[in-house]
Amino acid sequence: MVSDPDEALAERVLESLARRGETLATAESLTGGMLSAMLTDVPGASRSFVGGVVSYATRVKVSALGVPEHLVEEHGVVSRECAAAMAQGVRSRLYATWAMATTGVAGPDAQEGRAVGTVWVAVAGPDGVETRGLALEGDRDDIRKGSCRAVLALLGELIGPEDGIIVREEGALG
Asked: How big is the CA angle at 120 (ends 116 and 123), to the nearest 5 degrees?
């Protein structure tokens, strides 16, 4: 068992998925691979984690994840709609039971008129997609780590309340 709270959350989520025979994929923007690294730091992660796509550029969100261009034009990439499309796209492309997505503004500058710390996370699963908006504070690293914690907590809420995985992230927009 790991001692870092973030690693412990990742471990509990992966263990729950492995017990259920389910798989997980990631689609990351502002976290730039940090979420996938957090998962693969857990020994035995390959029992459920299948892989991820780091889609930092908008064109990669569109081409690799299938985020519709009209959605980006209408809502932007820092949006509930984009986060949901990213999660659904990577879930479909990597044939995973579950998928997590992160998109937002880590700074130092605002993006699309949205303030630094504005983040959307999404989890797509067998019954659809759930999103959560966040208003995080701190430096780039704090915002990126907070995004990872929030999306892991959201997945934990969806797959494992019976396992005690529920963790609520401060700064949620609702």
From this structure: 155
Contacts of 43 (CB under 8 A, 6+ apart): none
59-80 residue pLDDT tens: 999 999 999 999 999 999 999 9
Q: Where are the alpha helices (DSSP H) in the chain?
A: 5-20, 34-40, 58-65, 69-75, 80-93, 140-159
- Top CATH class of 5-163 equals alpha beta
- Residue with the two structure tokens 């992160």: 102
CA gap 52, 48 in Å, rounded: 12
Residue type for 73, please?
Answer: E
CA atoms within 13 A on the CB side of 11: 11
Amino acid at 95: Y
Q: Please check whether residue 31 is in contact with residue 148, taking contact to mean a CB–CB distance below 8 angstroms.
A: yes
Contact 117, 143 (CB under 8 A): yes
Backbone angles phi, psi at 87, to 5 degrees: -65, -45
**pTM (predicted TM-score):** 0.91
Partners of 129 in the β-ladder:
124
Residue type for 173, please? Answer: L
